[in-house]
Amino acid sequence: MKILILPPYQNKNGYTNLQTRELMDNLVAKGQIAEKEYIIDDGYFLDWPDERRDSEFLANISLGIIKKVKACHQSGGVDAIVCMGSMEPAFYPAREICDVPYLGALHSALHIASLVGDRCSVVEATDPQAILVRRHAKMYGFDEKLVSARQAGFSSTQMGKHLAEVPRDKRMDSPEIARIIERIVDQCAAAVEQDSADAVIPVSY
To answer: What pLDDT, in 10s, does the model give residues 120-136?
Structure first.
């Protein structure tokens, strides 16, 4: 079994790829996957000029995902593709192109949340991304189970910058990272206490 881990895009700072590699390293350390069972793609390069993560940004990264999936389809060698990130770029076109299972992060998370609870909430990075979550949930048939889509107020690029600049063993001492964590935790708590969610999906981190 070989899984291709596909970042939603590659930026000039390499933050997205760094986050993907660190996440997979954590899974390996916990024994949830072996290094030989996956490969990480660099992602399609996108020189996006700002921090916006909206529908225009989604359209741009979707083209990159389609090109990457087409290349993978032609070369073969993997048994499944997992696209990271919650914006679900080119989810349906990628599934049509691909001759192996193609999994989107949000689509998969909503399925799991529906198994462990009756009412779920998603905590996104920014408000435009939270809006996209609501749209995707409706397309996937989970709009009745999604009781809220909240946002922490920090873009994934901002978070990635802190991860890149602060050594792992120093992160708990970083005021910037502490603010991000506090904001995420506050939104998760509000999803339970105010929205009556019994499952919470923190994404884009």
So the answer is: 999 999 999 999 999 99
